[in-house]
Design brief:
The structure is a single chain. The chain is of the alpha+beta class. The chain has a single domain, classed as Translation Initiation Factor IF3 (2-Layer Sandwich). It has two helices and four strands, in the order βαβαββ.
Length: about 80
């Protein structure tokens, strides 16, 4: 079950910064907590899902928005 939901504005940052900053933020969160990531980097569409798969997080939602993309990531229990 999901915990609290936070948002993280990563707009204007290019690869690899969105993933590195998301990793750091998720590490400080409790398992089950959810984090919205807001990006403008076109590579985030590839990088964020791969990061989630490799690190045990669940990509709940991925949505294209004007000028970028939004991802809802749920922190995994054994991640990081």
């Amino acid at each position: 079950m999901a915990g609290r939901v936070a948002a993280y504005d990563l707009k204007g940052l290019n690869c690899p910064l969105p993933v590195l900053k998301a990793k750091k933020r998720l590490a400080a969160m409790q398992p089950g907590s959810r984090l919205w990531l807001e990006t403008t980097d076109p590579l985030a569409v590839i990088d964020i899902p791969a990061f989630c798969a490799e690190n045990g997080h669940h990509l709940v939602e991925s949505t294209a928005v004007s000028g970028g993309h939004r991802f809802l990531v749920e922190r995994g229990g054994n991640a990081l």
